[in-house]
Amino acid sequence: MHFTSEQRLDDGVLEREFTLGEIPGILWTSGSAPAPLILSGHNGGLHKREPRLVARARHAAAQYGYAVAAIDHPGHGDRPRSAVDERARADLRRAMAAGEPVDEIFESFVVPLVEKAAPEWRATLDALLTLPEIGGPVGYAGMTAVGIRLAVLEPRIAAAGFFAGGYVPRAQREEARQVTVPLLFLLQWDDAGNPRQRALDLFDAFGSKEKTLHANLGGHAGTPWFEADDGNRFFARHLK
Amino acid sequence: MHFTSEQRLDDGVLEREFTLGEIPGILWTSGSAPAPLILSGHNGGLHKREPRLVARARHAAAQYGYAVAAIDHPGHGDRPRSAVDERARADLRRAMAAGEPVDEIFESFVVPLVEKAAPEWRATLDALLTLPEIGGPVGYAGMTAVGIRLAVLEPRIAAAGFFAGGYVPRAQREEARQVTVPLLFLLQWDDAGNPRQRALDLFDAFGSKEKTLHANLGGHAGTPWFEADDGNRFFARHLK
């Protein structure tokens, strides 16, 4: 893991960009004592520099003392896109514009993303946990599909916050039963791209004994800011 | 309004019992400066001294500085039960034991409760707001059926937390569209007596532009304690 830039922000948070092999990432920390770590798994098409993700990460570091890390998944953010990626995106745009079913396109798109992203998170976690300012325990917050895979594979994940805002492959809907860590599941009630009943069924399927659903009015990008605080308090209950 | 007892508790909260005509109630306060008021509407069959209700009220007063009031509704707690009340309760027990449908019994039972309780809350509110240590604004937290009626009738209610844990009459399910205050709707995912889909439909029906659903695993009495804090923070956003 190589740090490629370092910047002290006006909220006192230290923001460092890093690379780990091909994986580019950012780490936000607010102190030198070993802090619990939150892996911030942004949604499918977004960049690790997406403004809402950065705002939440800085808030979690500045106000709650967490270390927060984000990486760009293969084909996302700063990473090159393959011809296959580009074709799947074009297919998706065309199908959505035509009002055609998109489940199979999402399936073809998200399955390989999940398969690649989960091991990359594990490698990133190995590297991050060698830093003296990161002490664990570890939480994951963000994209549901990758988070399910990671929570099933990775015993160091102690709690997870999932955003029911993206396509979850059939394999991960099945795997949900194997997720047993405490869970905060966030749902936008009017998210046009994500059928509400499917999200409620997924919440029901998780194997966790402690799981909480938060639903708010509005579309995909309308999650109210107070949910960032609720998420941080959820982690405060489980990452101590 | 007559205060009939006064006790300073070990958390510093002043607990005063009062009567207002036939209505017995309790007021919890933690200071002398005008505080926002929360009307704590406990569930149908419970007493204003129900331990979880008292614990939540004291916590809201001690930790958040709210004034909190609870009253016994007609036929509940310290108040006499009519022969009609007793018969409805007996019918309900018999039907539940026999596994028979209970909606019509609940309807016969809860409709008059709601009709009587909402004006009693308004009279209690009139009296409480004359006290110098209560400044408003006012929130309601508790039983959904009474809360819907009160939120529709009473413009001084600025925010409401409803527990989807009891029967809501057809009239209040219709009235839900007229509820427009910010809303926190609490649901127990496995509440045997309260069909989940009916609660989700009710959440959907509320007219409020800002409404949040919190659902937790477990049965009717299994609401985790952290929801008390979440409720207090919800009110902190809306009662300032």
TrEMBL record, chains A, B:
A GO molecular function held by the record: hydrolase activity
InterPro entries for the chain: AB_hydrolase_fold
Assigned keywords, A-Z: Hydrolase
Domain of life of the source: Bacteria
Entry protein name: Alpha/beta hydrolase
